Amino acid sequence: MTDRSGLVGHTYPHYTVRVEHGKVREFALAVKDDDPVYADEAGRLPAPPTFSAVTSHWLPRERADVLGLDLRRVLAGGAEWEYLGEIVAGDVLTVRAHIAEVSEKTGSRGPMTLVVTEHEFVNQREETVLRLRSTVIELGER
Amino acid sequence: MSESAPPPAPVRRVGPLTRTDFVRYAGAGGDFNPIHHDETFAVAAGYPSVFGHGLLTAGILGGFAASWLGRRNLRRFTVRYVDQVWPGDTLVLSGEVLRSAPGEVEVGLLVHSEAEGREPRLVLRGDATAVYPVSGGGAS
Question: Coiled coil: which residue ranges (chain A) (predicted)?
Answer without folding.
Answer: none
